[in-house]
Write a sequence for this structure.
């Protein structure tokens, strides 16, 4: 019999003990950065706070935020607290503009990250007898090596297939008896679609679990993946600035548990930057509790979600977060309404005729911003009369209006014209 939890002590720690642990680590961390990183010393001094001002957990709100721009301004290693001789790995996120965000790790940081990954994978049924196919991009991206390390620590058989070469992924699933597939949800859809085209039913393979993350995806998308892939679709969340994946993970009840002994979460109002009451939506902010190379203090993730401290049936006491609605950078304001691509996805996925592939195109007509949603139909549906197709796009448009409250034309594009993703799907095409 395998143990139920990877790290029972922390995963089931009671609230008071966790708070005491977090306070101790927070105190250490703010002192660590203040003493070692000129950026933080200046930021704290300008803000009029000292490490000794942190006496209770709530005192963290006295400290200044750290932003992506701070990382850019201090690129590549200005926020690194240790000499390069103590750094053993450097990851980076590609970033859409300018220089990447760097993520240096000491040996101890790597070990803790690995523990966080093993903890998540263990919660998700991965065991020494599992065959885990890791189709996250290997390289600077934290997804590939993060999952690799965690899986090695669990002791399962790892197939480091990397992202892409989809037919080969399917061959490996069949030939190697893959039971666990790790990739982005959009890449899993690409794999499922390809398998269906090849006449292979993934439900009849040894595949049992998916370990998805790195991009927003709706519950409806998850249901689609589970139904067509015959798997339980688990989730991971994280970001390069904090460690990569490993910040949080779902249990069997789809609750996203945060490794709160490693990262201290807060939700703030993105406008006022004041903390919001528990359960309310806002921007997720994290402070690293145990990192040495590049510990972030109150890092503004730009991810919109909420936190819940409820008893979970799985027995873990780790605080949970809701599914990420989207990044505030991806939020569109349409006729005064705030809209995230994931909300459009939720509506699209209500329609059985629609392929789970879409793009939101933003363009300019004169001075006016114009938005269209482009999606595909299931192949046999697309082969119908133009009238039927127009009818479907009108119905989707009406439903978007009903649910989200915005008027958006929906264009049905020919099958397979939307580029299939092998990593993070690009949902917004901004032509303005
Ligand atoms: O995407 C780390 C990761 C790899 C997480 C593999 C999970 C699995 P970055 O490239 O730095 O790191 O991108 C981080 O991706 O701020 C979110 O906006 C988004 N993101 C990550 N996981 C999820 C998720 C990795 N489960 C950014 N749901 C984050 C929604 C996610 N968004």
């Amino acid at each position: 019999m395998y143990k139920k939890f990877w790290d029972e002590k922390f995963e089931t720690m009671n609230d008071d003990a966790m708070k005491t642990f977090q306070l101790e680590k927070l105190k250490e961390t703010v002192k660590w950065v203040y003493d070692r990183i000129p950026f933080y010393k200046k930021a704290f001094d300008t803000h009029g706070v000292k490490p000794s001002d942190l006496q209770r957990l709530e005192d963290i709100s006295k400290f200044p935020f750290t932003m992506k721009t701070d990382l850019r301004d201090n690129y590549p290693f200005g926020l690194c607290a240790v000499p390069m001789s103590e750094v053993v790995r450097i990851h980076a996120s590609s970033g859409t503009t300018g220089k990447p965000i760097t993520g240096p790790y000491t040996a101890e940081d790597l070990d803790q990250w690995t523990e966080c990954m093993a903890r998540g994978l263990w919660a998700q049924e991965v065991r020494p007898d599992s065959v885990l196919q890791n189709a996250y991009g290997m390289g600077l991206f934290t997804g590939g090596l993060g999952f690799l390390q965690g899986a090695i620590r669990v002791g399962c058989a790892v197939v480091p297939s990397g992202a892409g070469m989809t037919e080969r992924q399917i061959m490996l699933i069949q030939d190697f008896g893959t039971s666990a597939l790790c990739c982005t949800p959009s890449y899993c859809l690409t794999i499922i679609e390809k398998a269906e085209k090849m006449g292979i039913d993934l439900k009849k393979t040894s595949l049992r679990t998916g370990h998805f993350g790195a991009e927003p995806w709706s519950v409806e998308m998850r249901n689609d993946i589970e139904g067509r892939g015959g798997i339980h679709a688990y989730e991971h969340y994280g970001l390069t600035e904090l460690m990569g994946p490993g910040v949080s993970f779902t249990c069997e009840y789809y609750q996203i548990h945060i490794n709160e002994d490693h990262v201290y979460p807060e939700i703030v109002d993105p406008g006022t930057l004041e903390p919001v009451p528990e359960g309310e939506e806002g921007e997720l902010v994290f402070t690293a509790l145990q990192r040495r190379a590049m510990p972030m203090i109150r890092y503004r993730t730009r991810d919109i979600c909420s936190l819940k401290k409820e008893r979970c049936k799985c027995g873990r006491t780790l605080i949970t977060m809701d599914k990420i609605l989207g990044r505030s950078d991806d939020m569109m304001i349409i006729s005064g309404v705030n809209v995230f691509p994931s909300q459009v996805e939720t509506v699209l996925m209500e329609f059985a005729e629609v392929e789970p592939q879409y793009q939101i195109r933003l363009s300019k007509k004169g001075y006016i911003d114009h938005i269209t949603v482009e999606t595909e139909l299931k192949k046999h549906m697309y082969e119908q009369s133009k009238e039927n197709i127009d009818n479907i796009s009108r119905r989707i448009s009406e439903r978007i209006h009903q649910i989200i409250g915005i008027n958006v034309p929906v264009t049905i594009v020919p099958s397979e014209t939307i580029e299939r993703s092998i990593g993070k799907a690009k949902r917004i095409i901004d032509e303005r």
About this structure: The chain has two domains: 1-328, 332-430. The longest strand covers residues 354-365. The mean pLDDT is 96.
